[in-house]
Amino acid sequence: MRLLLIRHGQTPSNVGHFLDTARPGPGLTDLGLRQAAALPGALAGEDIAALYASTLTRTQLTAAPLAAERGIEVRIRDGIRELSAGDLEMRADEDAARQYLTTAFAWSAGDIARRMPGGESGTEALARFDSVVAEAAGAGAPGTVALVSHGAAIRVWTAARARNVTVGFAAEHSLDNTGVVVVEGSPDSGWTALSWAGKVVPEVTASGAADGGPAGRTLSGPELGPTADQPFD
Which burial class, exposed, middle or buried, applies to 72 when counting CB atoms under 10 A from its CB (0-12, 13-18, 19+)? Predict the structure, then answer.
């Protein structure tokens, strides 16, 4: 089956670079609403059998225009909400963003027992996302299912589950608001990433810089690699 992993539209917290992961979270900015309105046209070529969104307000608002255009319901699932920031919640400093991303990408690399400061472990975060993907596989097989989720959750899950996406690739490649990662496969056979924000994912991926996540910051350091010359998203 084919999965479309869609990041939500822009929020005020994205603009302010806050680690805003708690429920229900903020709504969309004017730009975010326009991004959501553009999704049906951007996905016009996709035969979407089912549509999911997280329990956070921003994903549901992003999914609404697509649901209305296709005449399908939005299935709300907590499992695809953003990776919890724990004690780092609502911080906007670089140290907090670094801790958050370093911990999250450690999960993709296999250190799933590691826990976000005051928050969930990789075991818990990946399991909840996996459970929704498994449900979606049944709902859409053999068609396409769209999951409107969150930047860090999508990048970390894809790096952990797609055979051709390394941690370095996911860390280096941020995902803009309403950006889409397309994967193909199944929970049993595994997943292959076909495209990342409109670009083909190479068979052999590169390692390197880390940026993005809920705070949208460009970071550098020994754990994350050199700084990428990319704007905040």
Answer: middle
